[in-house]
Amino acid sequence: xxxxxxxxxxxxxxxxRECASLLPSVCEVLADSGRSVPxxxxxxxxxxxxxxxxxxxxxxxxxxxxxxxxxxxxxxxTASDPGVLSFTLRLxxxxxxxxxxxxxxxxxxxxxxxxNLQHWQEAGLWDDPCLRIGWIQGLRSTLQHPKALSFFVQxxxxxxxxxxxxxxxxxxxxxxxxxxxxILLFFQKVSSAGSNGVNKKEEDLEPPAITMETSAEYSAVVxxxxxxxxxxxxxxxxxxxxxxxxxxxxxxxxxxxxxPPLRDKLLQTVTESLEELVTAGCSQLTxxxxxxxLAANSSSCPDGRVPGQRVARILSSMLSxxxxxxxxxxxxxxxRRGHHDTVHTARAVRILLLPLDIITGxxxxxxxxxxxxxxxxxxxxxxxxxxxxxxxCVCLTNTPQITLTPPGxxxxxxxxxVTAVVSLLRICSGSSSSSSTGCSEVCRxxxxxxxxxxxxxxxxxxxxxxxxxxxxxxxVFTILIQYLDNPDSDPTVLHKSYQALVKxxxxxTDLSLITDQLRQDLVEVVKKRACDMRWEVRxxxxxxxxxxxxxxxxVTLGEEVCDASEALxxxxxxxxxxxxxxxxxxxxxxxxxxxxxxxxxxxxxQQGAALTEDxxxxxxxxxxxxxxDTEGFPRRAVVQYFISWFFSRSSHSPPSSxxxxxxxxxxxxxTVLSQGSADLDWEVKVHTLELAELLLDQxxxxxxxxxxxxxxxxxxxxxxxxxxxxxxxxHTHTGTHAEGVQSDLARVVEQGVISALxxxxxxxxxxxxxxxxxxxITLRETICPLSLGALDATAAMAxxxxxxxxxxxxxxxxxxxxxxKSDRALETDISAQRSFSGADGGxxxxxxxxxxxxxSLDERLEVLTxxxxxxxxxxxxxxxxxxTASAAHTHPDTKPGQEVIVDCY
Amino acid sequence: xxxxxxxxxxxxxxxxxxxKSTTIMLDCGLDxxxxxNFLPLPLVHSPRLSKLPSWVCKDGTINLEKELKExxxxxxxxxxxEFCLPERELLDLSTIxxxxxxxxxxxxxxPYITEHTGFTGTVYATEPTLQIGRLLMEELVKFMERVPKxxxxxxxxxxxxxxxxxGPLKDAVDVWTWKRSxxxxxxxxxxxxxxxxGYSQKVELFGAVQVSPLSSGYSLGSSNWIIQSHHEKVAxxxxxxxxxxxxxxxxxxSLKNSDVLILTGLTQMPTANxxxxxxxxxxxxxxxxxxxxNVLVPCYSSGVIYDLLExxxxxxxxxxxxxxxxxxxxxxxxSSLEFSQIFAEIDxxxxxxxxxxxxxxxxxxxxxxxxxxxxxxxxxxxxVVFTGHPSLRFGDVVHFMExxxxxxxxTIIFTEPxxxxxxxxxxxxxxxxxxxxxxxxxxxxxxxxxxxxxxVQPLHVVCPEQYTQPPxxxxxxxxxxxxxxxxPMPYRRCSVLNLPFRRRYERVYILPELANSLVPxxxxxxxxxxxxxxxxxxxxxxxxxQSVPKPPPVPPSKKRKRVMEEPPVVLAxxxxxxxxxxxxxxLATLQKHGITEVKVxxxxxxxxxxxxxxxxxxxxxxxxxxIVCDNNxxxxxxxxxxxxxxxQKL
Lengths: 905, 650
Prior knowledge:
heterodimer, A: two-stranded antiparallel ribbon, two-stranded antiparallel ribbon, flat, B: 7-stranded mixed β-sheet, 7-stranded mixed β-sheet, 17 helices, Beta_Casp (chain B), cytoplasm (chain B)
């Protein structure tokens, strides 16, 4: 028997005959203003399909001549649905994207009709944003070649386009902005073509057929646009703020991508306006303005040319604007951009550290903060609660970045920033006394503020890698434990405190830095939080215990390494707490407890240590959860636990590993496979198959032709996945022979792997069936190799069989096999005939190799690989949908306008 | 209007308001912190307590062997515990007309005020306040009477001796006024003077003022009070809460527009958020039980315990504590639980009903009057025990302290905010038991009260001085004080405040027939005036204008009328004048009448016209005109008529 591996690739980019035949009637439907379109998305899908066809190199005009007629009809019918009109404009643009298409459309004067503004305005259709956006996007698609540019310029479209930049519809305005940027950037080579030829290397990419004419047209466009930018950048009154905002966005877009000639030209034109805008000090424009300045600054050459210096000056004045909050945002923007000029960076750092310095008491900036001319304004702003909290949060968010700036830039040693964040946390919890801190009027604004607490904890977490962090461990631990203990800490604050704690433990080279008192406090607080009323807190606590177990530290410098939970919590605390958490009423907590237990035990599994009574107890509790828990999360976690255990044992265990624990593990694995594959939750089933995969890997990885599933596709990542990041590397059998396959297969059958795979194969959840199918194919390729030399092995294999249950998946498999059988009724294979003797309910025994060959696994894989909506997404079904919908709507019973209008919120 | 402050304790207030001829006492809280200076009263003989050494003065000059005992470095009075009463010398308590009670915690001194002082007034309280207050008093009396102590220590109170004592005893104030607990008889007599009121019910006091309780959201039946006349409004805000677990939400809108707002009973634990504390309570409880220990919760038999039970009911399932027994031991446990049920059901928002019920019905919470009897046979450990008194000086809690104090597995969780837990524990030291302090105080915090005051906008705020500065131990927390404009008027024990009032009006009623007879005339657009002649009748602070009685018709008599018996002739009142005399026009008129030599002199209030020829002065002032003219009656009459020409007659 030969199975051919063929994959038929369905291309959406080629138009098949069936679609081509349907298209004219679809066009007819769409062009008929009396009939309605099924829904907006179908037009979008249609356009996507056309775009796909065009991108694949096909010509729409050639493939579907009916489109041309469609366009003319629609354009002349002002009663057309605006949605259809918009679609038509964009379709036209798509067709004119190539020079040939453009030429043909122009010859039939379609282009002039379609993009004729006056026509749309007179018809009163221009008011519909749908049409305006169609116009912009249509033109945007067209503008891919010089001819289109000429058309654009000659039609005087530049002014209307600039007007659309401040359109009332945000989508239209944004599209207009994109379009303006596209014109300037796409054709920018045109202007440089004749000049110095700097970009010679990129000549290939230049748009073809550059003529002097095009160059002149481009210059005109650049001139028009940059004059407009210069004129309109400064808001005339408050209402024009929107316009300035749009222009700034456009400028940022342009400056980031423009080549030197265009950039210089733009800068020359707008620098003065930018300067004026900076002095105007408009809060809402600060961030976009900063974006523009930074884009200009980073793109301007460091060759000391005048525009460059001017930009640097603007940047300087941006960093000395009066409004303290804006200043903070500007400084933060500068740092975020990874700006490298030390003068400005140093200034930004000072700006960002000043509010922290004011609140936590002057330590960061030295005593000369009075030199910061905006000190007064900052203090004033900080006295208002809202602006105080927002400013402090901006500062905190940037502290990790600040500590990474070069030493010359930083006004203080990085470790002082850690100290400041710790002080701030103390002030926030209300525990710090004012004597050592800064302005009390400001401090009261942050006391008890959850937002500041969270920001500060995040900052502290990230600061663990800053230079000198190690000296601060004890202080950081103290404040974090205090936060964990504080009855008023909300669940998120507690979660972040735990995260910070885990990160900072990694900083410890040895745990002697943490005093016994701190450890004791931590134990107490963790015990308390494990009993918290809020499940989120219990969950974070349990998670923390797991994370801690994953961190390895040495107890004292250079000494033996152990996991952090052992070292910090003394070992006697973690497992009892986690065992208790297995009984939690909240399923998430139970699931977290299970994965934390797995992390805690991984080390002892790897060492092959004998099981403790505790562990045996846990195992029986876990099996209970797998069979009885009503929630999916804990059951998933249980399967993951056993995966983790099995993996640790098989990849690490030395020969001396305890046999009692191995036998318990294998016993459990059998239970997990049978229960997991019968679970109602598809993820449990997928995890069960992952365990089956590990068993297959272990059994066959030494055999020729076995391709590990995990090599082919990465294991799915799950929130409660306990499998470590390292790749599966199982120990391999030594000295196995081909005959060994038979015994290995027998063992795998006995473990229940085959049953799990077969039941997965007929599962109604696609991911389950897919995974099972892949694994079965792998298995088939190992035990039923196609090469002739392996026939003897196949014969031997025929003796290994497995049981099919008379109901459920067994019945299903039997049915499939029966069908296969009747198809090949004439083929003589008596032994096989004996093996599956009908589907009459009893537990039948079938030969594994025969089953593998008879299940048409490859065909199944193909079906399963396609996404579940592939049928509904095909262009054909789209076209059919449009036709059906239209037919339904034109049914005599339905009066026009009576269709159901779906409210979209 | 005056406010006499008889208590300095911000949450156990006792103030007297003198307002419009009424004398109103606002609350009469009993400061029980004084009992911390005494040794605990054990229910069962305690060898440990009885063996405590007597305190000996270093130089041996004082011998108080019988009165003072020493425990872990602190000195305690070995006597029946005594309480610090509200000040009784500042004002004659027999003059008090009414006492308004805001909640059951603030009435514990009632028998001391109403009995043996000559008090003859009425006490107003809501029904839950009265009933639960009675329970708390009854419990207190039973706690004391159950363990009678023959000895009464008094020598230590001698000023000379007290000065030489160590620690807190030395600094205790007014120890001579401290009193032992009242008797049940006194309680009953005091409570018989209580008249029940419902929320928003208006009670007239002598026609002068109207008082009305408003829901304050703090505890069952708790109220704030509005005391108002027609033109003045005083709001008395005592323990109030915005937390939603309580039966009726706080009525804030009725507090609006008061002239004076007396603010007491804010949270005693401004830094301890009740939700956080409840969480802390539950997790510590679960932690102890899981480790096999017992939990002791010293508490009052009403109040916070209801919240604890409610919270625990939800918690025990999730914490797998389903099998742990919960005991509530108090002489009034049964009634307290019943009352909480009844009153919660009456309230509109009866969200607390099913939970407590369930905790009892499912046999998870068992209640007993005392550790003797049924309890001792059903007692199972580990368990959770709720019992009083939170001071740890008397009640069943003393027994559990002796029983469980030695084991580190057990935990005592303090939830009542009234006592310092370290002071409460002092006579039990050294103690192995774990101590957790989770004071739950649901009363308004500073943030909430600032918001409330912004909303209700009183003209003046009066509050205990403690609220005008940050707490002593946290002087940097400027967020934990009241900051108002104008600044609040602070008071302390024995302060007498003059409350500022802007308006001084009385409402006077006018009878319809009298009103009918009035003839108003418009003196300027929109303002009309009329003169009224009437008899002012005042009774019960209510003023009415009545028509002047007509002379009774003369009975027909054949006798000769006697002149003497004729009723006095009521003279028609002279018309009132209004308006101003314009100087220029008046001068012109004078001239027309031949008076030409007029010297005009400007004065502070108007002008003086000197008619030099006649040696006559005319003083034209804003509120009067005088003609000084000696011996020239015709001229005076002429001048008077000239002046009258410019004025309007009513």
